[in-house]
Amino acid sequence: MSFNQLQQARAIALPSREAMLRRDPSVHQFWHTHKALFSDAWNEWQQTEQDNLLTLDSSLLDKRLRDAVTQAWQDPSKDVAVKELLQEVAPGVFELQFFDPERLADLREYLERVWDAQIPLRPPYGIVLNRRGAMLDSRSEGYLAAPNFQAFYREMLNTYMRPIARMLFPEIMGYDTQTFGFSIHYQPNTDSSIRPHTDASAVTLNINLNLPDEAFTGSAVDFFDLASGQKHSLTFKPGTAMIHRGNVVHAAQPITSGERTNFVLWLYGDRGQIPPQDAKRTDIDASERWTTPTAALDSFAPF
Ligand SMILES: O=C(O)CCC(=O)C(=O)O
Ligand SMILES: [Fe+2]
Known about the structure:
alpha+beta; 20% strand; six-stranded antiparallel sheet; binds fe (ii) ion; four-stranded antiparallel sheet; dioxygenase; oxidoreductase; signal; Pro_4_hyd_alph
């Protein structure tokens, strides 16, 4: 690797927002053409910045969660301690404290340095084009390819999300081999809300990254319970996460002041498969939950 990939990458202008929203073929071509360059640039960025960058690891997570999860990996029969940290806040929607709010400043500082890197990043244009968001998974064009971040991202999915999801939603077992993720950022005048939709995932973990002093108003997430016809509006607190099946209809209300930053992580099966509607929801043995699939990652990306 020669040490000028970073400068080269910085000199390349992103396609226009309009072209990205239109999903113009030239946009796909753009990311394809520069794939290796951008990946090398993130490597180089990490090396250049290594004295400034915080190590991303599980010390950023809530201690009770980290301890309970560590224990469950050692002895799956003790995973009730993890379950006790999950609260059902709407039908099929569970809340947990994921990050330690006191450590979020470090993670956010890392992400600020990512923006300052000026390497082209592809914003998530699944539902809307969220300007200050990034694709996180290596299957995605223009993803955040810094090796340290990638190791942390994989740890969040493999060590934490998948076994917890299997505990709550046993029918996802086997429909959880593949990963997907992006970050989103809301502020009142640009990207402020998301209309009702379902996710193309088997399960979604949506984690808030707001610092304790970063208050916002509005921006509740509405979950629609089709069985009862009721709507449950839930507001994120710093470092909390909500986990739900992808097929739960949800929407984000407009943010009226402040900002909100979240990581949205998805699991689904090979080639994007999700469990059939009538999938049996019978519990699986704890020892099966605390495992990591060995299937190769495919390249299917829903958006
Ligand atoms: O506003 C949120 O946190 C929900 C985002 C969401 O539903 C999505 O990105 O699919
Ligand atoms: Fe969603």
